[in-house]
């Protein structure tokens, strides 16, 4: 915050008193929360995003289904339980190590459905294309959508295409929505996390965000970091086979693992304790985050999940995860506790603890 010990509005060394300070003229390196306009931080998945949803969109739409704020909505229709989710993708660049905006869009929506335990079935896919974009680029992205859908076992059943004037887009934006069936007896939602639950992460974190930054900024870290984008439906089904009573799942995309844990802690009213030494952070990600001044806990992932599992089933779930290709690097990273409800803390390697709060703004814009 700006220094107010001298200058306008204070008594300096000369003993004279200037005009009173106007706090509205102060500057701060972090964005203020009372913005009259949208800022990039509103799309970052952190505190600003949460406030935008909670105080603007939820009151505007006003219904109990939306109020759950899970990755997908659980709906009852014709005697069936359906999961329904939608997401938009504005990643820059369109192509990056390990994937592109096309497979990212498919996997992102499939994974949102999987976080409620659903078996994804159908997707919609809409392209918003900027005038002047090469058709070869559009074709590559469309083919990636088709390939990713086939790999995830879903059908792209409907779609839409719009073209905007040159200069009013950024190549291609993609929106996908999906529906899937929730098996009988499955009740996975953030409100169900409870003290005693074991917190498990499905694999190394931070890879997608670092992969995007490496291409966008032309950075090299000694080894190429590829995005972890992948469908997680099969992994979730394997976990459910080992423990049908999973409590909560989340794919830590925008805002990373730290944000996902805060959302579950807030929804369930429980505390979360992480062990920093147990976090699976690849060496290249750690080096990149050190260079860029980032915390790996807040860097986006696109093929990972975090699970809150009843302690008595944790070993079985961990074994099932490690037996699946998308969970081979699974690790126990913490536990759910009754202390400090709604708060996430991390035990550091030095024996202390630190609060893992929601990030305020946007660490890595346009990463999904």
TrEMBL record:
Compositionally biased residues, Low complexity: 1-17
InterPro entries: HypE, PurM-like_C_dom, PurM-like_C_sf, PurM-like_N, PurM-like_N_sf
Name by which UniProt lists this protein: Hydrogenase expression/formation protein HypE
Highest classification ranks of the organism: Bacteria, Bacillati, Actinomycetota, Actinomycetes, Kitasatosporales
Residues of the PurM-like N-terminal domain: 71-182
Record region (Disordered): 1-23
Protein family per UniProt: Belongs to the HypE family.
Top-rank taxon, per record: Bacteria
Protein source organism: Streptomyces chitinivorans
Record-linked CDD domains: HypE
Cited NCBIfam families: hypE
Domain PurM-like C-terminal as annotated: residue spans: 194-340
Gene3D superfamilies the record matches: PurM-like C-terminal domain, PurM-like, N-terminal domain
């Amino acid at each position: 915050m700006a220094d107010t010990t001298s200058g306008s509005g204070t008594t300096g060394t000369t003993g004279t008193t200037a005009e009173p300070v106007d706090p509205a003229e102060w500057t701060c390196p972090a964005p203020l929360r009372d913005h009259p306009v949208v800022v990039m931080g509103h799309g970052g998945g952190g505190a600003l995003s949460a406030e935008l949803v909670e105080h603007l969109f939820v009151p505007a739409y006003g219904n109990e289904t939306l109020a759950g704020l899970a990755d997908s909505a659980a709906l009852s229709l014709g005697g069936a339980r359906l999961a329904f989710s939608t997401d938009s993708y504005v990643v820059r660049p369109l192509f990056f190590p390990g994937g592109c905006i096309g497979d990212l869009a498919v996997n992102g929506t499939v994974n949102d459905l999987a976080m409620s335990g659903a078996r994804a079935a159908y997707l919609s896919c809409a392209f918003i294309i900027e005038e002047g974009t090469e058709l070869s680029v559009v074709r590559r992205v469309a083919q990636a959508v088709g390939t990713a859908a086939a790999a995830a076992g879903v059908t792209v059943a409907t779609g839409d295409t719009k073209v905007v004037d040159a200069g009013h887009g950024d190549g291609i934006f993609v929106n996908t929505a999906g529906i899937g069936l929730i098996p009988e007896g499955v009740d996975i939602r953030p409100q169900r996390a409870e003290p005693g639950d074991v917190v498990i992460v499905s694999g190394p974190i931070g890879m997608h965000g670092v992969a995007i930054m490496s291409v966008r900024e032309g950075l090299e870290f000694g080894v190429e970091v590829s995005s972890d984008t992948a469908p997680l439906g099969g992994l979730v089904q394997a976990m459910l086979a080992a423990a049908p009573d999973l409590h909560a799942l989340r794919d830590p995309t925008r805002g990373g693992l730290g944000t996902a844990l805060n959302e579950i802690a807030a929804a369930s009213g429980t505390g979360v304790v992480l062990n920093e030494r147990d976090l699976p952070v690849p060496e290249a990600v750690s080096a990149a985050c050190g260079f860029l001044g980032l915390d790996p806990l807040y860097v986006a992932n696109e093929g990972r999940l975090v699970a809150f599992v009843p302690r008595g089933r944790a070993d079985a779930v961990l074994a099932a995860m490690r037996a699946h290709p998308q969970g081979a690097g699974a690790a126990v990273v913490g536990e759910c506790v009754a202390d400090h409800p709604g708060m996430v803390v991390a035990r550091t390697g030095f024996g202390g603890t630190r609060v893992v709060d929601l990030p305020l703004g946007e660490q890595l814009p346009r990463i999904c």
